[in-house]
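Lecture notes, unit on protein representations.

Consider one protein chain, 278 amino acids long.
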Amino acid sequence: MGCHLSCAKGYANMAREAASIGANTFQFFTRNPRGGSAKPIDPSDIEGFYELAETAGIETILAHAPYTLNPAAAKDETRAFAIDTLADDLARMESTPGQLYNMHPGSHVGQGVDVGIEKIADAINVVLAPEHTTTLLLETMAGKGSEVGGRFEELAAIIERIELKDKVGVCLDTCHVWDGGYDIATSLDDVLEEFDRTIGLERLRAIHLNDSKNPLGARKDRHAAIGEGEIGAAALAAVTAHPALRALPFFLETPHERVSEYGDEIALIAEARQAYLV
């Protein structure tokens, strides 16, 4: 389990920081979350990362695309920016081969869900290449506004249109699916069965573990610290212990100012999940 860390100080420092709080993975933005250019990759930093990662038991890391990317945009320049940034990010990810890259699918901005799905799939087909070792993940969304991906069927429709399907998976966000109407607190098995029927559990590659400030189905997307929201610590611990999920990497995106607070949450979840593993 890990959390979101700042990439400003480099890969090696992120690995060091993750290890300091008992994490065995971490997530990071490839660049400013609002967009912009990315720092050049430093080969010595990558070398230092691998040395620290081996010691800390870090095997999987998850990069997150900027929030501003919208491959479903109506404006050509907005869509072109998304495609260019995705292509650049995937090229940069090859500095750490075999890792994960997560993106919000996009918003159709009034064009309709079907148009959004087509545009997102087309953009992914443009940027994915056979030589890429990175797996691109589509994140489950809360369904607010014109977001695409608030229903499992929408993600399945995108994946169906992608040519290099073996390079695509899904990242399930617990806050988002809860806000989207999937009751993971009292009907986790049913939700996972629906995911399996619609998308396939084999495509589930990572989980954002977050509580929600909203009631089930609110479609608002407001993250809460573990145990301080409507889902609850016990239900989220059960998610981490579920036989279909327990081997996946989990990433906290909870609202904290200090990295040590993520360490406290990791310890809390680790203790609580034991009740579901006996």
